[in-house]
Design a protein that fits this description.
- The longest helix is centred in the middle third of the chain and has 16 residues.
- It is built from eleven helices and eleven strands.
- The strands form three sheets. A six-stranded parallel β-sheet has the order 1-4-3-2-5-6, sandwiched between helices.
- The protein folds into two domains: about 170 residues, Rossmann fold, CATH 3.40.50; about 90 residues, Pantoate--beta-alanine Ligase, Chain: A,domain 2 (2-Layer Sandwich).
- With about 300 residues, the protein is α/β, with parallel strands linked by helices.
- The two termini are about 35 Å apart.
- The structure holds pantoate (PAF).
């Protein structure tokens, strides 16, 4: 596995692969790799000839300077974790390879970026959309792999790839969870021992609420119960807990089409997010209820 920090060297390599008619997969990351990232790497290995993992802690997607400063930086152990996967390249661009002096362009995706993390982290998705566009272009990727834990991010990236006629296919991969149900995230490393034991309540509360809604319980009632459960378990505050349609993120008061529950909550000074699909029922012309498969 080569480590490259300059886009000229990256391009020289991708051009060789292109000339040989080989395909390129990319897994964009900000490092602090865990099994969730590694599942994306495995998916990329299975579906493309060459795999590039990118590692860039993107300052433009942090709306809070303290969050950026605290973001774990573990380059050496990240490289070690990738070694067994037989990937071609770890691309760790210097900041000015992404944002050279005078950089003045922002990719901004409306619609799917509104609400949820878009509302609670102003500017976050502009930062994500801008850096992902650059990484897809710099790596010349045929396919890019993103986790469903960041479900809104996945839809933002799909939208920009379609709207900007990028050739890269955006592939969503399932959320990987710890044995206790906590969605894997680099932020989990920042939880103290006690809060780390509390954190899996998120997965349980979301699954319980999703099942209750699927059974026909009023979503507002199910969400109130979930909020109370989180706060009494020790969560400090909840940025959002919402039922939204999938994949267009309309707020829903009843689950009459494919939907997901989305949560962002604070625990021990760490912001955790998660989402689960809701199996629901949709009205058909005969007015009988017809179950649908969750996305
Ligand atoms: O999900 C992430 O780690 C980041 O948002 C991404 C996609 C690598 C862009 O910086």
């Amino acid at each position: 596995m080569q480590i490259i920090r300059q886009k000229a060297a990256l391009r020289a390599l991708t051009e060789t692969w292109r000339r040989a008619g080989e395909t390129i997969g990319v897994v964009p990351t900000m490092g602090a790799l865990h099994a969730g990232h590694l599942s994306l790497v495995a998916a990329a290995r299975a579906r493309t000839d060459h795999v590039i993992v990118t590692l860039f802690v993107n300052p433009r997607q942090f709306n809070n300077p303290e969050d950026l400063a605290k973001y774990p930086r573990t380059e050496e152990s990240d490289a070690e974790k990738l070694a067994p996967f037989g990937i071609d390249l770890l691309y760790i661009p210097e900041p000015d390879e992404i944002y050279p002096e005078g950089f003045a362009t922002t990719v901004s995706v409306s619609g799917v970026s509104d609400g949820l993390c878009g509302a609670t982290r102003p500017g976050h998705f502009d930062g994500v959309a801008t850096v992902v566009t650059k990484l897809l272009l710099q790596t010349d990727a045929d396919r890019a792999f993103f986790g469903e834990k960041d479900y809104q991010q996945l839809q933002v990236v799909k939208r920009l790839a379609t709207d900007l006629d990028l050739k890269t296919e955006i592939v969503g991969c399932p959320t990987i969870r710890e044995d206790d149900g906590l969605a894997m995230s680099s932020r989990n490393l920042r939880l103290g021992a006690g809060p780390r034991e509390t954190a899996p309540v998120i997965g349980r509360v979301l699954t319980t609420a999703a099942k209750a809604i699927a059974r026909g319980e009023n979503p507002a009632q199910a969400l109130d119960t979930a909020r109370e459960a989180l706060l009494s378990a020790g969560f400090d505050s909840i940025d959002y807990l919402e039922l939204r349609s999938d994949p267009d993120f309309q707020l829903m008061t009843k689950a009459d089409r494919p939907a997901r529950l989305f949560l962002a909550a604070w625990l021990d000074g760490v912001r955790l997010i998660d989402n689960v699909a809701v199996a629901g029922r949709q009205k058909v012309e005969s007015s009988e209820d017809q179950p649908f498969e969750p996305a």
